[in-house]
Write a structure and sequence with these properties.
The structure is a single chain. The protein is α+β, with helices and mostly antiparallel strands. It has 2 domains: about 5-85, Glutaredoxin (3-Layer(aba) Sandwich); about 95-210, Glutathione S-transferase Yfyf (Class Pi), Chain A, domain 2 (Up-down Bundle). About 50% of the residues lie in helices and about 10% in strands. The chain contains 9 helices and 4 strands, in the order βαβαββααααααα. It has helices at about 15-25, 45-50, 70-80, 95-110, 115-125, 130-155, 170-185, 190-200, 205-210; strands spanning about 5-10, 30-35, 60-65, 70. The chain has a 4-stranded mixed beta sheet. A hairpin with a 4-residue loop joins β3 and β4. α1 (about 15-25) packs across α7 (about 170-185) and α7 (about 170-185) packs across α8. The radius of gyration is 17 Å and the shape is globular. Belongs to the GST superfamily. Zeta family.
Length: about 220
C-alpha cells in the first residue's frame, strides 16, 4: 500500500458501485482519498459534483494529472489494465467474456433498478410508499440473484468463485449487490451457490474493508 493516496474517489458509504471500486483498489494494494457525495442529501445533483460527472452518479475516480473516470466497470477495467496483478479478468477471451457477462448482468440489469434516483422517482412520481418500494427492491434483487444462481449452478466454469478459484470482476459485482441488499435487510432464498461465493468473499480482507457499514458516514450500531 502506498503511503499517500494515489487517487481521489468520489464516493458514498452505501453505494454498491463505489463498493466495487474500493474492493478493486484494496486487491491491488492501491489507496484513494475519498470525497463523500451524500446521495441522500442530493449532493450528486449539485453544480460542484456535476462538473465532475454530468450524469450526477458515483463513483468517479481521479488520478492527479489525469482525466476523471466514471462508471464502476470502466474503473475496474482501468485499474486492471494499469495494475495487472492480481488480475480481475481471466487470461482467455471466453473466460473474460463470461466474467464481463456476469458482471454486466448484476450491474446493468439488477443494480440500476434499486438506486436512489429510481426510488426518488417512484416515491415522488410513481405513487410508491415505503412498502411498495420494499416490494420493488425484493422483486429485482430476487430476479437478478436467482438468475445468477441458475447460471452458476449450470456452468462448468464456476468454481470456488463465480469463475474458477480466483476472485474476478464478477465476484466484486456480486458482492456489491449482496452487501447492499443486506444493509436493507433483504434476503433472497434458494441461492446456495451465490451464498457460498459470498461467504468466501466476506472472508477476504479486501471485501471486508470495503463493506458499506465500515465506511465514513455509515450509521453506527445502536
Amino acid at each position: 500500500m502506498t503511503d499517500e493516496p494515489t487517487y481521489e474517489l468520489f464516493s458514498f458509504w452505501r453505494s454498491s458501485a463505489t463498493y466495487r471500486v474500493r474492493v478493486a483498489l484494496a486487491l491491488k494494494g492501491l489507496s484513494a482519498r475519498e470525497r463523500n457525495v451524500d446521495l441522500d442529501a442530493g449532493e450528486q445533483r449539485g453544480a460542484d459534483f456535476l462538473r465532475v460527472n454530468p450524469m450526477g452518479a458515483i463513483p468517479a475516480l481521479v488520478q492527479a494529472g489525469g482525466p476523471t473516470i466514471t462508471q464502476s466497470l470502466a474503473i475496474l477495467e482501468y485499474l486492471d489494465e494499469t495494475h495487472p496483478q492480481p488480475a480481475l479478468l481471466p487470461a482467455d477471451p471466453v473466460g473474460r467474456a463470461r466474467v464481463r457477462s456476469i458482471a454486466a448482468g448484476l450491474t446493468s440489469d439488477t443494480h440500476p433498478l434499486i438506486t436512489p434516483r429510481i426510488r426518488r422517482y417512484l416515491t415522488t412520481q410513481g405513487g410508491f410508499d415505503d412498502a411498495a418500494w420494499r416490494r420493488w427492491q425484493i422483486q429485482w434483487f430476487s430476479t437478478g440473484l436467482q438468475a445468477l444462481e441458475a447460471r452458476l449452478g449450470a456452468e462448468a466454469q464456476t468454481g470456488a468463485y463465480c469463475h474458477g478459484d480466483s476472485v474476478t470482476m464478477a465476484d466484486i459485482c456480486l458482492a456489491s449487490i449482496v452487501a447492499v441488499m443486506r444493509v436493507f435487510k433483504i434476503e433472497v432464498p434458494d441461492i446456495p451457490t451465490v451464498d457460498a461465493i459470498m461467504a468466501r468473499c466476506e472472508a477476504h480482507e479486501a471485501f471486508a474493508r470495503a463493506h458499506p457499514l465500515r465506511q465514513a458516514g455509515a450509521p453506527r450500531p445502536a
